[in-house]
Amino acid sequence: MPTIPEAIQIALAHHQAGRFEQAEQIYRQILKADPRHPGALHLLGLIASQVGRHELAVQLISQAIRQDGAQAVFHANLGEAYRGLGRLDEAKTCYQQALRIKPDLAEANNNLGTILQAQGQLADAIACYSRAIASKPRYADAHNNLGTAYHDLGQWDAAVDSYRRAAESEPRYAKAHYNLGIALVAQDKLDEAAAAFRKAVDVDSGYAEAHYSLALILQKREQWPEAKAAFQQTLRIRPAFAEAYSSLGAVYQAQGCLADALECYQQSLRIQPDYPEAHYNWGTLLKDQKRFDEALVKYRRAIELKPGFAEAHCNMGAALQEMGRSDEAVAAYQEALRLEPNFVLAHNNLGNVYQAQGESDLALACYEQALRIDPRHGETLNNLGLLLQEQGEGAETDNPLSAPRHQQGRLAKALACFEKSLQLLPDFPEAHYNRALIYLSQGRFLQGWPEFEWRLKCKGYPVRTFSQPVWDGSSFVGRTLLVHAEQGFGDTLHFARYLSLVRQRGGKVVFL
């Protein structure tokens, strides 16, 4: 028959191996022999706490403390039981008592820190986590918690450092990798963030939030197939994830799969009817389909649910602008900018409205403000160039090269804007087209005509489609070439004189 100390050691071995039932039987046998044995009472209470029976844990560990109140770990584990019951003030008192007895008890410092952080006492929480790490340098949970405190303060460098230390201390700590990814996203370090999220799902393949966060990065990079697969994996793990359905819908929409996008938005709202982003995304789908009145209903619902939703105000402005309701569009963009003063797209779009209204100075101010915020915003550079181009061509003579110097200067600045826009967005049709117009106005035909072909890819440009291939300028002897009018009567009459030259290149010419 083992002695009580020997029985405690046997029970502890079962306990530490997760064999709670065998450990509990031995602790109870000890208490039959010695009902006031503090160690057995404490360890039996600890098992109760570990299996979620927190009320029983409080009773048992409190009895242990009445027998031996000098054990710091008793007070610390009583705090855990109280925390399990949501009684945070009592838990805090227990941790503080444990630390009066043993100031370097790492677990008590860490756990006290979590309560102080939950109560908004971030400086005190950071101090607790730091003491825990000083006592136990590879304490991964304390490093991770320290990172969350810095995260709450917006101190991203410190947060990243803490999360990295947590992951280094415990490489299979999926939460630390995930938190590291979130902090790196806040720093716009998307490559590193994606690597952190991938590490999190390597450690825990069922980590839905990590799959979702990785998918958002892939979506932002317009890696549509990869983003779609990541969102779908998220939903296999968590089928009732409204945010993932809404984001998956946006991917389908970007790929032109509008029916699938609509189904995703509807499913998102079936799960969470008041999810503002799903209403907003549905609104963008309706706007792209030119169903502007319906889009406005969705945007207004999104704003009702989320009054500070700057993107919804901005997109509502875009819908109103396309409906010809310019004054309302201006108000929507201004509200978006009130909510988010550095919203580049809203500055750009507001400039577009002013430009359409003939308010060139106001438009110029909007474009310049957008470029102060983001000098690499290609769309704004194009719009600024277009404004300068219009101002430079406004009073020109038939020969643009004889135009006043200030007009030529504006055209040069406009051309510089288009060229910078194309450095950032090489396939931006509007910038190519606008650059073509300047080249052609300057008689630079060899540069201008190839650029002018981009007009066919510009948004809203009327394009006639034929099953036959486009003529490449080569001989078409023995074949038929259709030449058709594309723009106004003036252009048609002007260029009809070249039909005789076309006939010299080949066979039959049909002019429509």
Widest β-sheet, arrangement of strands: 1-2
Number of strands: 2
Helix share bin: over 70%
Distance between the termini: 109 Å
Q: Which spans of ≥5 residues are poorly predicted at pLDDT below 50?
A: 395-403
Strand content: under 5%
From the helix content, strand content and strand pairing, which structural class follows?
Answer: mainly alpha
Anisotropy-based shape: elongated
Order of helices and strands: HHHHHHHHHHHHHHHHHHHHHHHHHHEHHE
Rg, Å, rounded: 34 Å
Q: Report the sheet with the most strands, covering strand number, pairing sense and barrel closure.
A: 2 strands, parallel
Number of helices: 28
Average pLDDT number? 92
What features would you describe in this structure?
A two-stranded parallel ribbon has the order 1-2. 42% of the residues are buried. The protein is built from 28 helices and 2 strands. It is an all-alpha fold. Helix content is 72%, strand content 3%. The N and C termini lie far apart (109 Å). It has helices at residues 4-16, 20-33, 38-50, 54-67, 72-84, 88-101, 106-118, 122-135, 140-153, 156-169, 174-186, 190-203, 208-220, 224-237, 242-254, 258-271, 276-288, 292-305, 310-322, 326-339, 344-356, 360-373, 378-393, 405-424, 429-441, 445-452, 489-495, 499-503, and strands spanning 476-483, 506-511.
